[in-house]
Amino acid sequence: MSDEPDAGRLVGREHRLPVRVYYEDTDFTGVVYHGNYARYFERGRSDFLRVAGISHAELLARDEPSAFTVTRLTMAFKRAARIDDALLVRTTYDAIKGPRLFIRQRITRGEALIATAEVEAACIDMAGRPRRPPAGLVTQLTPLLDASP
Predict the structure, then answer these.
(1) N or C terminus of the chain: which is more exposed, having fewer CB within 10 Å?
(2) How many independent structural domains does the chain possess?
């Protein structure tokens, strides 16, 4: 597992990624533009994999390259985040079923819930066809998946 300080950290099964809200993230009122939450969630999913020792570049460099695509993203906004806020993107990978990965995310500011996301991603080959994730990836993620039935 990676120890990159800028990639966040794992606490149990949950990956935690600090994100600071910059001026460029906001609208003219200083509130985070809704589309930027999708970017924060993407960073959380990518850095979860990075910290778990899974490299997107290595997946692409394999004999049978693979990548991920989001097939479903449901976001709910609870409170506004504002310029200069220190946010925490919290990510859990819950299950792998065939080519699909099921992920839950939330963004908090301190104890306040800002936004949530439920994500379904699929592992794909370079032609865009669904494929099972490589065995090594599944092995690395299995201890971090939700063990409840």
Answers:
(1) C
(2) 1
Q: Does the pLDDT of residue 109 top 80, yes or no?
A: yes
Q: Which amino acid is at 23?
A: Y
What's the distance, Cα to Cα, between the start and end of the chain in Å?
Answer: 26
Q: What does DSSP say about strands 67-77 and 112-124: parallel, antiparallel, or unpaired? A: antiparallel
What mean pLDDT do residues 90-110 have?
A: 97
Do 116 and 75 touch, CB atoms closer than 8 A?
Answer: yes
Report which residue type is found at 46: S
Active-site position among 27, 84, 125, 146: 27
Active site residue 27: yes
Residue 117 lies in domain: 8-141
Q: Is 43:17 a contact under the CB 8 Å cutoff? A: yes
Q: What is the pLDDT of residues 52-68, one digit of tens each?
A: 999 889 999 998 999 99
